[in-house]
Design goal:
The structure is a homodimer of 300-residue chains.
Chain A lengths: L7 E2 L2 H21 L5 E7 L3 H17 L2 E7 L5 H13 L5 E4 L9 H7 L11 H9 L8 H12 L8 E5 L6 H8 L9 E5 L6 H5 L4 E4 L17 E4 L3 E4 L7 E4 L4 H4 L5 E2 L6 H23 L1
Parallel strand pairs in A: 1-11, 2-3, 2-4, 5-6, 5-7, 7-8, 8-11
Antiparallel strand pairs in A: 9-10
Helix pairs in contact in A: 1-10, 6-7, 6-10
């Protein structure tokens, strides 16, 4: 029986604000020790969406009182020039976190750039050393911001991860896999029973329908329907998709991977798009930068 | 309804023989190019079980015509002495694979030893670089031998992994996690929907009971019962546990993680213990050594 009530809305902006409040205290404490956490964001080319992301990261750094470096390079930047810049940032002691905005132009070997980062400054968590630390449950590593944000969102919303069955839709290197690895870790913020479901999965509704928490990160607009979840499940929507919409002045609207209208009537709690996971991703980037600064302060 | 028939026995010794037949051809081909794959196994101390493992690895190398080095060090070997030996093996061009027999004596920092291995010679697949390659689906990496053996056993037995729901019991770094990562990879030998179940999981019977393939790697004798699987499931038993048995001359018998007698009446195929996964683990060590030699021959 489906009740015609509305799920609790998990507001990522409010949770992100709580994260920032905690971070301000950490940053103030670091500053008393002479350390101002610094983040360098490298943008190659002038993709409008990437520029907007970089701008909002820079803005958030300033709001928090972090040292922020925005490195804007032309689309013609060569691989070796980019590697040289990364090397400079690796050696710059005022910079604790480095992020190369994705996607770079096609002639850039992104994996090689990630490998060139100092793993201790890899606040995106994509360097192989940090990937391995996530598997090996070494808490000194950096976890990619979106999965980390999903975990924090659940915890701050009072959703019990420990012992829950979590279905993760999608097996990307950026969200699905790291999230699965994070939530199955042997600690109180993990200990979930995790199923990774994907485009090739059979019996998808049966599997997601048995989960306490469903995280949709499959990149298909409104893919997850009410039939796919069980009554009272918690639903986290990582997707941001453009859907054609003639009624919109832009000709499209943004939609998540979840059919919000119907799923919100069956779930017990759900994130909106936008305003759910999105704000958490940038909050976790700030948190990773502060963590990097704290760890470097211990090391030196 | 449970039928009183017996599941097909998946005989790891027969599948391992097939692997060896394939490997012999690969080795012969490498030898025509002047490359004899070489494996070094390092044993510290004189634990009887470890000695037996090392002996069987050495014996298999000789049977296949591989170059085999057995380095037996006293239990008093220091960390720095061991690191020095590892460094020598890293530089030895006749050695393509290095394995440090686990567990080393308590004063040895095993993780540091693993990190000291040349990742290209890490045929155990435990070096962080190889762990990351497994997540990132880079086929040049080495996958730990037991998970690799489980995958091969399934494939050679005609069990379809692609699209299947696989429940992996256990989330160890040696078996559970790498197996989950391997079977969820985006390729025809993967593409499974994988659930990692563990000691903290609620509703375990419900979850394993919905899986097409159940792999038990939880380290508890006869933990998985007939009630935990669905009629016709495929069951792979990774466990080797000692169970007290007064009737046995040794005072114990070996038991897997699966209650074989009852599960074999409900499963469609099942591995025995011993003679199931065990022979595959050593076969995959040989396969990884041949792969290491092949990759080094390409590089030089």
């Amino acid at each position: 029986m489906t009740h015609k009530r509305m799920a609790k809305l998990i507001d990522g902006r409010i949770v992100a604000e709580k994260v920032y409040t905690d971070l301000r205290a950490d940053i103030a404490e670091l500053k008393t020790r002479g350390v101002t956490p610094g983040l360098a964001v490298v943008l190659i080319g002038d993709d409008p969406a990437s520029r907007a992301y970089v701008r909002s990261k820079d803005k958030m750094c300033r709001e928090l009182g972090l040292h922020s470096v925005k490195l804007e390079l032309p689309a013609s930047t060569t691989q070796s020039e980019l590697l040289k810049r990364v090397g400079e940032l690796n050696r710059d002691s005022t910079i604790h976190g480095i992020l190369v905005q994705s996607p770079p132009p096609g002639h850039i070997d992104e994996a090689a750039i990630v490998r060139a980062l100092d793993p201790q400054k890899d606040v995106d968590g994509f360097h192989p050393e940090n990937v391995a630390k996530l598997v090996l449950e070494d808490a000194s590593g950096f976890v990619p911001c979106t999965p980390l944000g999903v975990q924090r969102l659940l915890l701050e919303s009072g959703v019990e991860i420990n012992g829950a069955h979590v279905a993760v839709l999608g097996r990307s290197m950026i969200v699905g896999k790291p999230l699965a690895l994070l939530l199955m870790q042997k600690n109180k913020n993990g200990n979930a029973t995790v199923t990774v479901v994907h485009s090739r999965s059979r019996d998808l509704p049966q599997i997601t329908g048995s989960a306490d928490i469903v995280v949709a990160a499959i990149g298909r607009a409104e893919f997850l329907k009410a039939d796919h979840i069980r009554e009272g499940a918690v639903v986290i929507d990582v997707g941001i998709n453009r859907v054609e919409d003639a009624a919109s002045p832009r000709g499209y609207r943004l939609a998540g991977d979840v059919a919000f209208d119907e799923v919100s009537k069956k779930a017990t709690a759900i994130t909106p798009v936008p305003g759910g996971v999105g704000p958490m991703t940038i909050a976790m980037l700030m948190a990773n930068t502060v963590k990097a600064a704290r760890q470097s302060a211990v090391h030196t």
